[in-house]
Amino acid sequence: MNTHAKIGTPLERDWDYLVQHDRVHRSVYTDPSFFETEMTKIFGGVWTYLCHDSELPNANSFKRVRMGLRPLIVTRDSSGRFHALYNRCAHRAAIVCPKASGTSKRFTCSFHGWTYNNDGSLVGVPYSGGYGDNFDKSGLGLKKIPRIETYRGFIFGTLNPDMPSLDEYLGDTKPYLDEFIDRSPEGELVVQSGAYRGIYHGNWKITWDNAADGYHPAFGHRSLFEMTRTRSGGEKGNKAFITGNPDESDMYCKAFSNGHSLLYQRPGLGPSLWQAARPTPGGDVLAQSLVDRISEEAAHTALETAPGAGINLNIFPNLLIIGNQIQVVEPIAHDKTQLTWYATTLKGAPDEINQLRMRIAEDFPNFGEIDDMESFERCWEGMQAPEAEWIMMHRGTHLDPEEVKGDDGVTKVTITDEAPMRNYLSNYRKIMEQEVPLAVV
Description:
- The chain is of the alpha+beta class.
- It folds into two domains: 48-151, Rieske Iron-sulfur Protein, CATH 2.102.10; 167-431, Naphthalene 1,2-dioxygenase Alpha Subunit, Chain A, domain 1, CATH 3.90.380.10.
- It is 29% helix and 24% strand.
- It has 17 helices and 20 strands.
- Strand 7 and strand 8 (115-117) form a beta hairpin.
- Helix 12 (283-293) crosses helix 13.
Protein backbone atom coordinates (compact mmCIF):
# COMPACT_ATOMS: atom_id res chain seq x y z
CA MET A 1 0.00 0.00 0.00
CA ASN A 2 1.39 3.40 -0.98
CA THR A 3 0.49 5.33 2.16
CA HIS A 4 2.20 8.49 0.97
CA ALA A 5 0.05 8.58 -2.16
CA LYS A 6 -3.10 8.32 -0.06
CA ILE A 7 -1.99 11.24 2.12
CA GLY A 8 -1.07 13.14 -1.04
CA THR A 9 -1.05 16.81 -1.85
CA PRO A 10 -4.17 18.87 -1.07
CA LEU A 11 -5.61 17.96 -4.49
CA GLU A 12 -4.71 14.26 -4.28
CA ARG A 13 -5.73 13.28 -0.77
CA ASP A 14 -7.65 10.03 -0.37
CA TRP A 15 -10.21 11.05 2.23
CA ASP A 16 -11.79 7.58 2.34
CA TYR A 17 -8.44 6.42 3.67
CA LEU A 18 -7.59 9.39 5.90
CA VAL A 19 -10.86 9.69 7.84
CA GLN A 20 -12.60 6.36 8.28
CA HIS A 21 -15.64 5.31 10.25
CA ASP A 22 -13.69 4.43 13.37
CA ARG A 23 -10.25 5.99 12.98
CA VAL A 24 -8.31 8.91 11.51
CA HIS A 25 -4.82 8.92 10.05
CA ARG A 26 -2.13 10.63 12.13
CA SER A 27 -1.09 12.81 9.18
CA VAL A 28 -4.35 14.76 9.48
CA TYR A 29 -2.81 16.16 12.67
CA THR A 30 0.93 16.03 11.98
CA ASP A 31 1.32 17.05 8.32
CA PRO A 32 1.73 20.87 8.07
CA SER A 33 0.01 20.93 4.67
CA PHE A 34 -3.30 19.97 6.31
CA PHE A 35 -2.95 22.93 8.67
CA GLU A 36 -2.41 25.31 5.76
CA THR A 37 -5.60 24.10 4.11
CA GLU A 38 -7.54 24.32 7.40
CA MET A 39 -6.60 27.97 7.85
CA THR A 40 -8.42 28.81 4.61
CA LYS A 41 -11.21 26.27 4.24
CA ILE A 42 -12.23 26.02 7.91
CA PHE A 43 -11.03 29.17 9.70
CA GLY A 44 -12.57 31.46 7.12
CA GLY A 45 -14.72 29.01 5.21
CA VAL A 46 -17.27 28.46 7.99
CA TRP A 47 -18.67 30.73 10.70
CA THR A 48 -15.76 31.40 13.06
CA TYR A 49 -16.25 32.97 16.49
CA LEU A 50 -14.54 36.36 16.78
CA CYS A 51 -15.56 37.94 20.10
CA HIS A 52 -18.56 38.99 22.21
CA ASP A 53 -20.30 42.32 21.83
CA SER A 54 -19.88 43.06 25.56
CA GLU A 55 -16.13 43.28 24.88
CA LEU A 56 -16.94 46.29 22.68
CA PRO A 57 -19.27 48.07 25.10
CA ASN A 58 -19.12 51.60 23.71
CA ALA A 59 -18.95 53.45 20.42
CA ASN A 60 -15.40 53.33 19.00
CA SER A 61 -14.45 50.25 21.05
CA PHE A 62 -12.15 47.71 19.43
CA LYS A 63 -10.56 44.33 20.11
CA ARG A 64 -7.77 42.47 18.30
CA VAL A 65 -8.62 38.88 17.37
CA ARG A 66 -7.55 36.27 14.84
CA MET A 67 -9.56 34.26 12.33
CA GLY A 68 -7.22 31.33 11.97
CA LEU A 69 -3.94 33.12 11.26
CA ARG A 70 -5.57 36.30 9.91
CA PRO A 71 -4.97 39.28 12.22
CA LEU A 72 -8.22 41.22 12.66
CA ILE A 73 -9.59 44.18 14.56
CA VAL A 74 -13.26 43.95 15.51
CA THR A 75 -14.61 47.48 15.95
CA ARG A 76 -17.83 49.18 16.96
CA ASP A 77 -17.93 52.44 15.01
CA SER A 78 -19.43 55.72 16.20
CA SER A 79 -22.87 54.67 14.94
CA GLY A 80 -22.72 51.34 16.80
CA ARG A 81 -22.11 49.09 13.77
CA PHE A 82 -19.64 46.23 14.04
CA HIS A 83 -16.81 45.67 11.57
CA ALA A 84 -14.16 42.95 11.32
CA LEU A 85 -11.15 44.62 9.71
CA TYR A 86 -7.90 43.07 8.61
CA ASN A 87 -5.20 44.41 10.93
CA ARG A 88 -3.00 45.08 7.92
CA CYS A 89 -2.05 48.37 6.33
CA ALA A 90 -3.00 48.50 2.66
CA HIS A 91 0.41 50.00 1.88
CA ARG A 92 3.12 47.60 3.09
CA ALA A 93 1.12 45.16 5.26
CA ALA A 94 2.26 46.28 8.73
CA ILE A 95 -0.36 45.90 11.45
CA VAL A 96 -2.05 49.19 12.28
CA CYS A 97 -3.32 48.26 15.76
CA PRO A 98 -0.79 46.86 18.25
CA LYS A 99 -3.04 47.16 21.32
CA ALA A 100 -5.19 44.21 22.44
CA SER A 101 -8.30 46.34 23.01
CA GLY A 102 -9.43 49.84 23.79
CA THR A 103 -11.26 52.79 22.29
CA SER A 104 -10.17 54.66 19.18
CA LYS A 105 -11.79 56.39 16.26
CA ARG A 106 -8.72 55.85 14.10
CA PHE A 107 -5.76 53.53 13.57
CA THR A 108 -2.44 54.83 12.28
CA CYS A 109 0.26 52.61 10.82
CA SER A 110 3.53 53.25 12.63
CA PHE A 111 5.56 52.36 9.53
CA HIS A 112 4.51 55.10 7.08
CA GLY A 113 1.71 56.90 8.88
CA TRP A 114 -1.30 55.81 6.84
CA THR A 115 -4.41 56.48 8.94
CA TYR A 116 -7.78 54.69 8.88
CA ASN A 117 -11.17 55.30 10.47
CA ASN A 118 -12.54 52.48 12.62
CA ASP A 119 -14.91 51.54 9.81
CA GLY A 120 -11.81 50.76 7.71
CA SER A 121 -11.81 53.81 5.42
CA LEU A 122 -8.45 55.38 4.60
CA VAL A 123 -8.43 59.03 5.71
CA GLY A 124 -4.78 60.06 5.77
CA VAL A 125 -1.68 59.43 3.64
CA PRO A 126 1.45 61.47 4.43
CA TYR A 127 3.04 63.29 1.50
CA SER A 128 0.31 62.01 -0.81
CA GLY A 129 1.62 64.14 -3.65
CA GLY A 130 4.24 61.48 -4.19
CA TYR A 131 1.52 59.21 -5.62
CA GLY A 132 0.52 61.62 -8.40
CA ASP A 133 -2.57 63.69 -9.09
CA ASN A 134 -4.83 60.69 -9.73
CA PHE A 135 -4.19 58.97 -6.37
CA ASP A 136 -7.49 57.54 -5.07
CA LYS A 137 -7.75 56.61 -1.40
CA SER A 138 -11.24 55.11 -1.71
CA GLY A 139 -10.03 51.64 -2.67
CA LEU A 140 -7.18 51.48 -0.15
CA GLY A 141 -9.01 51.14 3.15
CA LEU A 142 -8.53 48.29 5.61
CA LYS A 143 -9.98 45.13 4.09
CA LYS A 144 -13.05 43.66 5.80
CA ILE A 145 -14.45 40.26 6.59
CA PRO A 146 -17.45 40.52 4.25
CA ARG A 147 -19.93 38.65 6.43
CA ILE A 148 -20.30 39.09 10.17
CA GLU A 149 -23.40 38.10 12.13
CA THR A 150 -24.26 37.91 15.81
CA TYR A 151 -26.27 35.53 17.93
CA ARG A 152 -27.27 37.00 21.29
CA GLY A 153 -24.00 38.88 21.60
CA PHE A 154 -21.67 36.27 20.08
CA ILE A 155 -20.02 37.72 16.96
CA PHE A 156 -18.99 35.38 14.13
CA GLY A 157 -17.42 35.99 10.74
CA THR A 158 -16.92 34.09 7.49
CA LEU A 159 -15.33 34.69 4.11
CA ASN A 160 -17.63 32.18 2.45
CA PRO A 161 -20.47 33.81 0.50
CA ASP A 162 -22.27 30.47 0.25
CA MET A 163 -22.47 29.78 3.99
CA PRO A 164 -26.00 29.60 5.36
CA SER A 165 -26.97 32.17 7.98
CA LEU A 166 -25.33 32.00 11.39
CA ASP A 167 -28.70 31.09 12.89
CA GLU A 168 -28.93 28.06 10.59
CA TYR A 169 -25.29 27.13 11.19
CA LEU A 170 -25.76 27.05 14.97
CA GLY A 171 -28.81 24.84 14.51
CA ASP A 172 -29.54 22.53 17.45
CA THR A 173 -26.92 24.19 19.65
CA LYS A 174 -29.12 27.26 20.10
CA PRO A 175 -31.34 25.98 22.95
CA TYR A 176 -28.23 25.14 24.98
CA LEU A 177 -26.55 28.44 24.15
CA ASP A 178 -29.80 30.16 25.17
CA GLU A 179 -29.79 28.22 28.43
CA PHE A 180 -26.25 29.43 29.12
CA ILE A 181 -27.19 33.06 28.41
CA ASP A 182 -30.61 33.04 30.06
CA ARG A 183 -29.14 32.37 33.48
CA SER A 184 -28.79 36.16 33.46
CA PRO A 185 -31.84 37.96 34.91
CA GLU A 186 -31.68 40.29 31.90
CA GLY A 187 -30.81 37.62 29.34
CA GLU A 188 -27.37 39.09 28.61
CA LEU A 189 -23.83 37.93 29.31
CA VAL A 190 -20.84 40.11 30.03
CA VAL A 191 -17.52 38.65 28.90
CA GLN A 192 -14.77 39.90 31.16
CA SER A 193 -11.70 41.50 29.62
CA GLY A 194 -9.16 39.47 31.57
CA ALA A 195 -8.28 36.09 30.11
CA TYR A 196 -6.47 32.90 31.07
CA ARG A 197 -4.23 31.76 28.23
CA GLY A 198 -2.28 28.58 27.79
CA ILE A 199 -0.25 27.24 24.88
CA TYR A 200 0.34 23.56 24.26
CA HIS A 201 2.65 21.82 21.83
CA GLY A 202 0.24 20.00 19.55
CA ASN A 203 -2.44 20.29 16.88
CA TRP A 204 -5.65 22.25 17.49
CA LYS A 205 -7.87 19.26 16.64
CA ILE A 206 -6.64 17.41 19.73
CA THR A 207 -8.72 19.92 21.70
CA TRP A 208 -11.75 18.98 19.60
CA ASP A 209 -11.13 15.27 20.16
CA ASN A 210 -11.49 16.07 23.86
CA ALA A 211 -14.26 18.65 23.70
CA ALA A 212 -17.15 16.22 24.32
CA ASP A 213 -15.07 13.39 25.78
CA GLY A 214 -16.57 12.08 29.00
CA TYR A 215 -14.23 9.08 28.97
CA HIS A 216 -11.14 10.90 30.26
CA PRO A 217 -12.24 12.78 33.43
CA ALA A 218 -12.06 9.78 35.79
CA PHE A 219 -8.42 9.30 34.74
CA GLY A 220 -7.08 12.57 33.35
CA HIS A 221 -8.58 14.62 36.19
CA ARG A 222 -7.99 12.16 39.02
CA SER A 223 -5.81 14.61 40.96
CA LEU A 224 -8.54 17.26 40.76
CA PHE A 225 -11.14 14.81 42.03
CA GLU A 226 -8.87 13.70 44.86
CA MET A 227 -8.30 17.33 45.82
CA THR A 228 -12.06 17.88 45.76
CA ARG A 229 -12.59 14.87 47.99
CA THR A 230 -9.94 16.11 50.44
CA ARG A 231 -11.28 19.65 50.58
CA SER A 232 -14.97 18.78 50.83
CA GLY A 233 -15.12 15.37 52.46
CA GLY A 234 -16.35 13.84 49.20
CA GLU A 235 -19.56 15.86 49.20
CA LYS A 236 -18.75 18.01 46.17
CA GLY A 237 -18.30 17.50 42.45
CA ASN A 238 -19.52 14.93 39.96
CA LYS A 239 -19.77 11.70 41.91
CA ALA A 240 -20.21 9.60 38.77
CA PHE A 241 -16.62 10.44 37.87
CA ILE A 242 -15.26 10.39 41.42
CA THR A 243 -16.68 7.15 42.76
CA GLY A 244 -18.93 5.61 40.10
CA ASN A 245 -19.23 4.55 36.49
CA PRO A 246 -20.23 7.50 34.26
CA ASP A 247 -21.94 5.11 31.82
CA GLU A 248 -24.39 4.16 34.57
CA SER A 249 -25.40 7.79 35.09
CA ASP A 250 -27.95 9.87 33.18
CA MET A 251 -25.22 12.06 31.66
CA TYR A 252 -24.99 12.06 27.88
CA CYS A 253 -23.40 13.52 24.76
CA LYS A 254 -25.06 14.80 21.62
CA ALA A 255 -23.55 15.07 18.14
CA PHE A 256 -25.07 17.94 16.16
CA SER A 257 -24.83 18.95 12.52
CA ASN A 258 -21.89 21.08 11.34
CA GLY A 259 -19.51 19.36 13.76
CA HIS A 260 -21.00 20.86 16.93
CA SER A 261 -21.44 18.76 20.08
CA LEU A 262 -22.69 18.72 23.65
CA LEU A 263 -21.45 17.03 26.80
CA TYR A 264 -24.28 17.17 29.35
CA GLN A 265 -23.01 16.59 32.90
CA ARG A 266 -25.96 18.17 34.72
CA PRO A 267 -27.47 14.86 35.95
CA GLY A 268 -24.16 13.90 37.58
CA LEU A 269 -24.15 17.01 39.76
CA GLY A 270 -27.23 16.30 41.84
CA PRO A 271 -30.19 18.54 42.54
CA SER A 272 -28.13 21.65 43.34
CA LEU A 273 -25.33 23.05 41.18
CA TRP A 274 -24.27 25.34 44.03
CA GLN A 275 -24.02 22.49 46.51
CA ALA A 276 -22.02 20.40 44.02
CA ALA A 277 -19.53 23.19 43.23
CA ARG A 278 -16.01 22.69 44.52
CA PRO A 279 -15.07 24.90 47.50
CA THR A 280 -14.31 28.46 46.39
CA PRO A 281 -12.16 30.91 48.38
CA GLY A 282 -14.56 33.40 49.96
CA GLY A 283 -17.57 31.53 48.66
CA ASP A 284 -19.27 31.01 52.01
CA VAL A 285 -18.82 34.68 52.94
CA LEU A 286 -20.31 35.88 49.66
CA ALA A 287 -23.19 33.42 49.89
CA GLN A 288 -24.01 34.53 53.44
CA SER A 289 -23.80 38.18 52.37
CA LEU A 290 -26.40 37.48 49.73
CA VAL A 291 -28.67 35.64 52.19
CA ASP A 292 -28.40 38.55 54.63
CA ARG A 293 -29.19 41.11 51.97
CA ILE A 294 -32.13 39.39 50.27
CA SER A 295 -34.40 36.54 51.32
CA GLU A 296 -32.88 33.11 51.87
CA GLU A 297 -35.09 31.59 49.17
CA ALA A 298 -34.13 34.24 46.61
CA ALA A 299 -30.48 33.86 47.54
CA HIS A 300 -30.55 30.09 47.00
CA THR A 301 -32.17 30.56 43.60
CA ALA A 302 -29.54 33.10 42.60
CA LEU A 303 -26.68 30.93 43.86
CA GLU A 304 -27.62 28.23 41.36
CA THR A 305 -26.44 30.59 38.59
CA ALA A 306 -22.95 31.08 40.04
CA PRO A 307 -21.37 27.74 39.03
CA GLY A 308 -21.41 26.39 35.51
CA ALA A 309 -24.64 24.84 34.27
CA GLY A 310 -23.10 21.39 33.83
CA ILE A 311 -22.94 21.86 30.06
CA ASN A 312 -19.98 21.67 27.70
CA LEU A 313 -21.26 23.11 24.42
CA ASN A 314 -18.85 23.01 21.48
CA ILE A 315 -19.42 25.15 18.38
CA PHE A 316 -17.08 24.16 15.56
CA PRO A 317 -14.41 25.25 14.84
CA ASN A 318 -13.29 27.42 17.76
CA LEU A 319 -15.86 28.18 20.47
CA LEU A 320 -16.37 26.06 23.59
CA ILE A 321 -18.78 26.88 26.41
CA ILE A 322 -17.40 25.23 29.56
CA GLY A 323 -18.74 25.80 33.06
CA ASN A 324 -19.57 29.49 33.36
CA GLN A 325 -16.81 30.45 30.90
CA ILE A 326 -16.11 30.53 27.19
CA GLN A 327 -12.97 29.04 25.69
CA VAL A 328 -11.57 30.04 22.30
CA VAL A 329 -9.38 27.61 20.35
CA GLU A 330 -6.65 29.57 18.54
CA PRO A 331 -4.37 27.61 16.17
CA ILE A 332 -0.89 29.09 15.90
CA ALA A 333 0.87 26.39 13.85
CA HIS A 334 0.22 22.75 13.01
CA ASP A 335 2.06 21.85 16.24
CA LYS A 336 1.14 24.81 18.47
CA THR A 337 -2.24 25.85 19.86
CA GLN A 338 -3.40 28.57 22.23
CA LEU A 339 -6.47 28.08 24.42
CA THR A 340 -8.00 31.24 25.86
CA TRP A 341 -10.56 31.24 28.66
CA TYR A 342 -12.87 34.17 29.39
CA ALA A 343 -14.94 34.42 32.54
CA THR A 344 -18.51 35.59 32.13
CA THR A 345 -20.79 37.50 34.46
CA LEU A 346 -24.54 37.92 34.28
CA LYS A 347 -26.12 41.25 33.52
CA GLY A 348 -28.54 42.19 36.27
CA ALA A 349 -27.33 39.52 38.73
CA PRO A 350 -26.47 40.43 42.33
CA ASP A 351 -22.89 41.55 42.86
CA GLU A 352 -22.22 38.53 45.05
CA ILE A 353 -23.20 36.16 42.23
CA ASN A 354 -20.88 37.80 39.73
CA GLN A 355 -18.05 37.85 42.26
CA LEU A 356 -18.62 34.14 42.82
CA ARG A 357 -18.63 33.47 39.09
CA MET A 358 -15.26 35.17 38.81
CA ARG A 359 -13.81 33.14 41.68
CA ILE A 360 -15.27 29.89 40.36
CA ALA A 361 -13.75 30.74 36.96
CA GLU A 362 -10.31 30.43 38.57
CA ASP A 363 -10.94 26.79 39.41
CA PHE A 364 -10.95 24.57 36.33
CA PRO A 365 -8.39 26.41 34.16
CA ASN A 366 -5.89 26.34 37.02
CA PHE A 367 -6.41 22.64 37.75
CA GLY A 368 -8.39 20.67 35.16
CA GLU A 369 -7.13 22.53 32.09
CA ILE A 370 -3.56 21.84 33.14
CA ASP A 371 -4.45 18.14 33.16
CA ASP A 372 -5.95 18.40 29.68
CA MET A 373 -3.06 20.28 28.13
CA GLU A 374 -0.63 17.75 29.56
CA SER A 375 -2.70 14.99 27.95
CA PHE A 376 -2.78 16.90 24.65
CA GLU A 377 1.01 17.15 24.59
CA ARG A 378 1.35 13.46 25.41
CA CYS A 379 -0.98 12.65 22.49
CA TRP A 380 1.10 14.87 20.24
CA GLU A 381 4.33 13.18 21.29
CA GLY A 382 2.81 9.78 20.59
CA MET A 383 1.66 10.91 17.15
CA GLN A 384 5.27 11.42 16.09
CA ALA A 385 5.70 7.65 15.57
CA PRO A 386 5.11 7.35 11.79
CA GLU A 387 4.70 3.57 11.81
CA ALA A 388 1.74 3.80 14.20
CA GLU A 389 -0.60 5.45 11.74
CA TRP A 390 -4.04 5.53 13.36
CA ILE A 391 -5.88 7.58 15.97
CA MET A 392 -8.81 5.49 17.17
CA MET A 393 -12.34 6.79 17.71
CA HIS A 394 -14.28 3.53 17.75
CA ARG A 395 -15.92 3.61 21.18
CA GLY A 396 -19.64 3.13 20.52
CA THR A 397 -19.37 2.03 16.87
CA HIS A 398 -20.95 -1.32 17.79
CA LEU A 399 -24.28 0.46 18.31
CA ASP A 400 -26.90 0.86 15.58
CA PRO A 401 -26.76 4.55 14.56
CA GLU A 402 -30.55 4.68 14.24
CA GLU A 403 -31.07 3.34 17.73
CA VAL A 404 -29.02 6.13 19.36
CA LYS A 405 -30.98 8.93 17.73
CA GLY A 406 -33.43 10.83 19.86
CA ASP A 407 -36.91 11.93 18.89
CA ASP A 408 -35.33 15.07 17.41
CA GLY A 409 -33.15 12.98 15.09
CA VAL A 410 -29.95 14.01 16.91
CA THR A 411 -27.45 11.34 17.97
CA LYS A 412 -27.53 10.98 21.75
CA VAL A 413 -25.08 8.61 23.42
CA THR A 414 -23.56 7.78 26.77
CA ILE A 415 -21.03 10.31 28.01
CA THR A 416 -18.01 8.12 27.21
CA ASP A 417 -19.01 7.38 23.60
CA GLU A 418 -16.75 8.81 20.88
CA ALA A 419 -19.63 9.68 18.54
CA PRO A 420 -18.99 13.46 18.94
CA MET A 421 -15.40 12.94 17.77
CA ARG A 422 -16.55 10.93 14.76
CA ASN A 423 -19.16 13.59 14.06
CA TYR A 424 -16.83 16.57 13.98
CA LEU A 425 -14.23 14.69 11.93
CA SER A 426 -16.90 13.70 9.41
CA ASN A 427 -17.84 17.37 9.09
CA TYR A 428 -14.14 18.31 8.93
CA ARG A 429 -13.61 15.86 6.08
CA LYS A 430 -16.61 17.23 4.17
CA ILE A 431 -15.21 20.76 4.34
CA MET A 432 -11.64 19.76 3.52
CA GLU A 433 -12.48 17.68 0.44
CA GLN A 434 -14.75 20.21 -1.26
CA GLU A 435 -14.14 23.54 -2.92
CA VAL A 436 -14.86 26.37 -0.48
CA PRO A 437 -15.44 29.76 -2.12
CA LEU A 438 -13.69 32.53 -0.18
CA ALA A 439 -14.30 36.18 -0.89
CA VAL A 440 -11.20 37.99 -2.13
CA VAL A 441 -10.94 41.24 -0.20
